[in-house]
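Severity: low
Component: inverse-folding endpoint
Summary: output formatting inconsistent between runs
Steps to reproduce: submit the following structure tokens with default settings.
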């Protein structure tokens, strides 16, 4: 870790630079500056708590208690910082390219490797993953021969480029390799991937590592990446090389590099930073409908021909939730599983595809005396006045 004094000096220096910039340019403050101001505020609250911590270290219990508080406070502060960055990343465009460089070297161990992958999963909870929105690449790196592109939706496109396949299949299939820590190679791999990315998309690289790199200085590769328009975030866990990770990260390094003393601390940080509930988001049909079969795994032993979704339903992926769902056709409601797509009840209609077992998702016709004759009823046009009633504009009038 950087000594707190050095850290404070750097912070104060950078903060004053920023103040000068802001005051020089107070009239035309861009979003970017507002963004950095919020980061400064958060960073300064980190300073405040550092001071309080050193003030009270008289007995062991108190300091233990403090360590615990500090631990929580640090996780909270760092995660607030990361959250601001994430918000900024997805603020004005849906189009984001995210590259994760995950340390799979020998010192990490397979259990902690899972915790790194958990970070990836949690971070993605803030993004809609599909070809027209966020595209993701996951590279694991160990020694020179162990740079593996496990997922790459950025430089290649595949029929399974969606969040459901990523979370339910690909992430679980990523292997822990062990070996050295060839950070430079990982950064160069990110560069090769992003070179083929969408030119107008925002680009971010997340480097997660627990050790000192070997196999050459990674800084020049990081510079190439930054020049290509990528924002680099680094996460050093346990013995991460502070200076190196600070330099690899985008400027200002202290808000783009995060240091955690242990994987436990890293997990606490990840839990806080991420996990915001995205709105339900849209569902897109998937190319391989078999993927939905995991929705009824417990009754799927029946045979290979078994189709979990109803014959009329479509297997789709929630691009925000990452869950598969069988979606009934327009005008029907139900779970979408075999035999459970029902037409909207008489007097209601549905104009979009809906998933769920609630008749409430079908919309009532404008007049209580409207009925629907056509099945499925897919628009308000299908609402007709019941017999004995005549149309008066949008209303049904009784013939008495
Ligand atoms: C210190 O904390 C332990 C439990 O965490 C407690 O049992 C002990 O009595 C405390 N000692 C003092 C001096 O407060
Ligand atoms: C995102 O944009 C909205 C308005 O478009 C703004 O209010 C908000 O502060 C921005 N958030 C960040 C993190 O820049
Ligand atoms: C992981 O290892 C298993 C067994 O060795 C192999 O079948 C699988 O293809 C590997 N996964 C990847 C993504 O390389
Ligand atoms: C198994 O399937 C039944 C419906 O056939 C469902 O009610 C039940 O919740 C399922 N169990 C699990 C563990 O998915
Ligand atoms: C599912 O559909 C098949 C054929 O359409 C049918 O034979 C079977 O009984 C259905 N199963 C359920 C649980 O509805
Ligand atoms: C809805 O109800 C009306 C009157 O009760 C009936 O004439 C009509 O056929 C019903 N629609 C359907 C789709 O059953």
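Observed output (run 2 of 3):
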């Amino acid at each position: 870790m950087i000594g707190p004094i050095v850290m404070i000096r750097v912070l104060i220096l950078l903060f004053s630079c920023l103040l000068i910039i802001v005051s020089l340019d107070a009239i035309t403050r861009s979003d970017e500056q507002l963004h950095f101001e919020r980061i400064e505020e958060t960073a300064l609250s980190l300073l405040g708590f550092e001071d309080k911590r050193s003030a009270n270290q008289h007995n062991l219990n108190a300091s233990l208690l403090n360590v615990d508080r500090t631990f929580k406070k640090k996780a909270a502060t760092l995660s607030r910082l990361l959250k601001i960055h994430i918000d900024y990343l997805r603020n004005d465009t849906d189009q984001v390219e995210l590259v994760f460089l995950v340390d799979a070297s020998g010192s990490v161990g397979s259990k902690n490797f899972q915790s790194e992958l958990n970070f990836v999963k949690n971070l993605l909870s803030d993004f809609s993953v599909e070809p027209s929105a966020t595209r993701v690449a996951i590279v694991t790196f160990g020694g020179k021969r162990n740079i593996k592109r496990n997922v790459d939706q950025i430089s290649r496109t595949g029929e399974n480029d969606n969040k459901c396949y990523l979370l339910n299949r690909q992430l679980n299939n990523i292997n822990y390799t062990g070996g050295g820590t060839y950070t430079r190679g990982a950064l160069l791999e990110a560069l090769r991937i992003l070179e083929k990315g969408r030119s107008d998309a925002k680009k971010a690289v997340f480097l997660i590592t627990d050790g000192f790199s070997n196999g050459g200085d990674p800084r020049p590769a990081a510079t190439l990446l930054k020049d290509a328009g990528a924002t680099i975030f680094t996460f050093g866990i346990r013995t991460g090389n502070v200076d190196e990770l600070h330099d690899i990260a985008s400027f200002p390094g202290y808000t783009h590099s995060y240091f955690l003393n242990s994987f436990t601390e890293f997990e606490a940080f990840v839990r806080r930073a991420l996990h915001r509930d995205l709105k339900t988001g849209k569902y897109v049909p998937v190319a391989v409908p078999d993927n939905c079969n995991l929705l009824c795994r417990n009754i799927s032993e029946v045979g290979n021909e078994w189709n979990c979704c109803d014959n009329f339903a479509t297997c789709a992926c929630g691009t925000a939730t990452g869950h598969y769902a069988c979606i009934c056709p327009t005008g029907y409601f139900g779970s979408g599983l075999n035999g459970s797509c029902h037409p909207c009840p008489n007097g209601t209609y549905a104009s979009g595809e809906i998933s769920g077992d609630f008749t409430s998702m079908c919309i009532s016709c404008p007049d209580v005396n409207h009925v629907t004759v056509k099945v499925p009823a897919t628009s308000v046009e299908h609402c007709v006045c019941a017999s004995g009633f005549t149309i008066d504009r949008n209303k049904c009038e009784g013939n008495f």
